[in-house]
Design brief:
The structure is a single chain. By secondary structure, this protein is an alpha+beta fold. Helix content is 21%, strand content 42%. It has two domains: 2-116 and 247-258, Diaminopimelate Epimerase, Chain A, domain 1, CATH 3.10.310.10; 121-239, Diaminopimelate Epimerase, Chain A, domain 1. The chain has six helices and 18 strands. It has an 18-stranded mixed sheet that branches. It is globular and about 50 Å long.
Length: 262
C-alpha cells in the first residue's frame, strides 16, 4: 500500500521557517497503531490525517508519542494541501475534530482558522515550573497548558528550560509569553511530555495567548511572533468565544509512504 504525504511549513513565508507538519490524505481511516507509527517515523511535532466526511473532512493529529485534541499549524497545513494539491475550490473547509468542527477560510495572509478560545484561570506557580524555567514569572494561568507571563521579550529569549522537570507538570505543556518589541506579544512553547521539547510555532497555544493579550491590551486584533529557532508569525483576532488565527504555508516536500501488506 502506498500513501501520499506532504510536508508543509506552516505559519511561514519561506521554507525552513514556521512549523513543519506532515499531512496524509486518506480515503478511509487506517488502524490507529499505523497512524501512530507513521507519526513516530516522521518525528515531526504533528502529522495530520484526514478523510472525506460528507461535504467536510474528519481530521486527526498525532505527535510522535500520542494523538492530541487540538493542533493549529497542522490544521493550517491540511487546508493548504486540500486547496493547493487536491483541487478543493470552496471558500472554506470544515474539519470535524476532537475539539469540534473547525473552519478554515482563505485570507489575505493565506488561510484563517476559526478555533475555540481557551478558558484560563489564575494559578499559583508550581515549584517544579519555576525550577524548570529557572526564573520566577510575573503571572501564571492554566488552560490546557500553563500560560506563564514574563515582563520582556528578552526574558523569553533567554529561557533555558529543564525539560525533564517540565515533564513532572500535570498539564499538556508550558507556554511562556511577554510583550513584544515589534509585535503585540511573543511566546515560546514547550511540550516535552509529547516528545516535542520546543514547538516551532503553535496554533493551539494561541487559543490561550490571544484571549489573554486581547483582555490585557484592550483590543481584539493582535500580531504575534513565536521565538523558537525557526520562528513564525501568527495574526490573531478574538471574537467572543472564538479565536481566528491566520498565516501562510510553504511546501517543503511531497512524498510517498510504503506500507507493507502484512
Amino acid at each position: 500500500m502506498k500513501l501520499k504525504m506532504f510536508q508543509v511549513d506552516a505559519f511561514a513565508n519561506h521554507v525552513f521557517e514556521g512549523n513543519p507538519a506532515a499531512v496524509c490524505p486518506l480515503e478511509a481511516w487506517l488502524d490507529d497503531s499505523l497512524l501512530q507509527a507513521i507519526a513516530e517515523e516522521n518525528n515531526l511535532s504533528e502529522t495530520a490525517f484526514f478523510v472525506p466526511m460528507g461535504n467536510a473532512y474528519e481530521l486527526r493529529w498525532f505527535t510522535p508519542a500520542d494523538e492530541v485534541d487540538l493542533c493549529g499549524h497542522a490544521t493550517l497545513a491540511a487546508a493548504h494541501v486540500l486547496y493547493t494539491h487536491l483541487n478543493y475550490a470552496k471558500q472554506e473547509v470544515v474539519f470535524h475534530t476532537r475539539s469540534g468542527p473547525l473552519t478554515v477560510m482563505r485570507s489575505g495572509t493565506g488561510f484563517s482558522m476559526d478555533f475555540p478560545a481557551a478558558s484560563l484561570i489564575n494559578t499559583e506557580a508550581p515549584s517544579a515550573l519555576v525550577n524548570a524555567l529557572g526564573k520566577a514569572p510575573k503571572e501564571v494561568l492554566s488552560g490546557f497548558d500553563y500560560l506563564v507571563v514574563f515582563d520582556s521579550e528578552e526574558e523569553i529569549k533567554s529561557l533555558k528550560p529543564d525539560f525533564e522537570k517540565l515533564k513532572e507538570l500535570g498539564l499538556r505543556g508550558v507556554v511562556v509569553t511577554a510583550p513584544g518589541q515589534e509585535v503585540d506579544f511573543v511566546s515560546r512553547c514547550f511540550f516535552p511530555k509529547l516528545r516535542v521539547n520546543e514547538d516551532p510555532v503553535t496554533g493551539s497555544a494561541h487559543c490561550e495567548l490571544a484571549p489573554y493579550w486581547a483582555s490585557r491590551l484592550g483590543r481584539n486584533k493582535l500580531r504575534a511572533r513565536q521565538l523558537s529557532k525557526r520562528s513564525g508569525s501568527v495574526e490573531c483576532e478574538v471574537k467572543d468565544d472564538r479565536v481566528f488565527l491566520s498565516g501562510n504555508n510553504v511546501d517543503y516536500m511531497t512524498a510517498e509512504i510504503n506500507i507493507p501488506q502484512n
